[in-house]
Amino acid sequence: MRPSAKMLTLGLVGLTVTVVVGFLIAVLLISWFSNPPFGLGNAPPQPVAFPHTVHAGSTADGGMGIQCEFCHRNVTQGDAATVPAVEQCLFCHKTIGGTEDSAKAEIAKVRQSFEENDPINWERVHRLPDHVRFIHEAHIRFFTDPGQPTRTGINGESIGQPLTVPETCSVCHGDVASMTEVQPKQGQSLKMGTCLDCHRNNNVATDCTVCHK
Amino acid sequence: MVTQRVDHKWGMVVDLDRCTGCQACVVACQSENNLPINTKDLFLQRRAYEWIRIERYWEGEFPDVKARFIPILCQHCENAPCEPVCPVFATYHNDEGLNVQIYNRCVGTRYCANNCPYQVRFFNYWEPVWPERLRNHLNPDVTVRSRGIMEKCSFCVQRIRRAEVTVERRERSNLDYATMKKRNFLPACVSACPTNALNFADQADVSGPVKEYFDDVNEHPHGEAHDRKTRGYRLLEEMGTKPNVIYLKKVDPFPLRKGVSHGS
Which chain B residues contact residue A137 at CB under 8 A? Predict the structure, then answer.
């Protein structure tokens, strides 16, 4: 039996609805489970190709083994970790000019920026919503304090000894020392559930106003 | 060691005898809490707002006339009428006696503002805008509320949190009134008040200026107000909202002649 025009229309409409609804569900699922969604999680292009592997990587791997807080100086003192001023890059790069041509070119950019008093416009990688108050200093103090009786990691694992500052950083940020470019998709998703889990594990305040401002 | 959080219960005492109606608190609040500028347009639309406002009343008839001022801010009620009506729990009462508004949870139903007897909740009808020259004036500790959500006085909770992190947990000392005053952790309106009409402290802090009034008012509930030793009273006390803000009656050494006042 040949389908009538009416049945054909109905079938087409049904097919279209199925495809549209399926597409919407797929979009929602991808948005929810991948963070950030749709390939937006690639590292943004930086004005200077800064390799964390060379600076923060361990000396065994050919890195310098510099501690996180040597450059991100404010991290143990205030809210934001801060990106250092160009002047601080020149502490070392006044004398270290690089060995490979590519490295030489990048370091030349840093020196030029210093000489021209023109700050480098780094692209921000990790971004919290505007309504969240996060104080790096308080979290580092908690995990590095030897007087703290118990501390628990984000996944509920017990941490016996106080951590060092770089170890504390990697609890959330992952192993940055092994990243050539810092990836937005890091150790933790930094959704509200992540914060709450860790706060509950460690029996610290979970009042909304502690984080929401 | 990271000391455990101390349980506070915050309270404010407004001494009407000292209030001169100068509006310094209003300005301090606007700049501390990223409030949009109340332009003439907004006033004409009746959509201008201030988290703390000075209400002015006239007493008597000219020439025997007196101006009376009363600063009205969120009363942070213990039995807050705004809280149970919120369908998404964007407003709730926390352990420290603060009535908290979580902005990103609010969906803008405006039930809370309609249920508030003090008219201290405000709805953002427009996206807030500031002139270009004020681009960098915003306080980073306070969210800029977008269009479509409710906002209100928070007792400058951002300053309280800052105080807890810097004083209680870093320096391991108690957050007493002297420390709060010295290091500017009091709410913006309180630190701006030139006549000390506004006072803010922990209600149990013996060194603070509010304990005596809260003790007295709590001891003598509404209905036996004449028994109170102090001048303290709460706004709309008969409604039983139990505000955490107490007002002190004005002492008038030169009252108006009898029959002159029309009780405005």
Answer: 165
What distance in Å separates the CA atoms of residue A125 and residue A81, rounded to the nearest whole number?
12
Closest listed residue to residue B71, CA positions, set B150, B153, B144: B153
Q: Which residue of A has its CA nearest to B102?
A: A212
Which of B161, B164, B172 should one mutate to test binding to chain A, selecting the residue with the greatest count of A CBs within 10 A? B161
Question: Which ipTM was obtained for this model?
Answer: 0.81
Listed by start position, the domains of chain B span 10-248
The pLDDT averaged over each successive group of 10 residues in chain B (264 residues) is: 69 94 94 92 91 91 86 94 94 92 93 94 92 89 92 94 86 86 93 95 92 92 77 91 93 73 49
CB neighbours of A148 closer than 8 A, spacing ≥ 6?
A142, A162, B1, B2
How do B232-233 and B99-101 pair as beta strands?
A: unpaired
Calpha distance B107→B150 (Å, rounded): 8
> What are the angstrom distances between the C-alpha of B49 and each of A107, B35, B115, B118?
53, 8, 17, 13
Whether chain A has a CB inside 8 Å of the CB on B142: the answer is: yes
State which residue of chain B sits closest to A144, comparing Cα positions: B1
Phi, psi of B58 (to 5 degrees): -100, 135
Assign domain B10-248 to its CATH architecture.
Answer: 2-Layer Sandwich (3.30)
The span from the CA of B53 to the CA of B57, in Å, is 13
Nearest of A20, A23, A138, A155 to residue A81 by alpha carbon:
A138
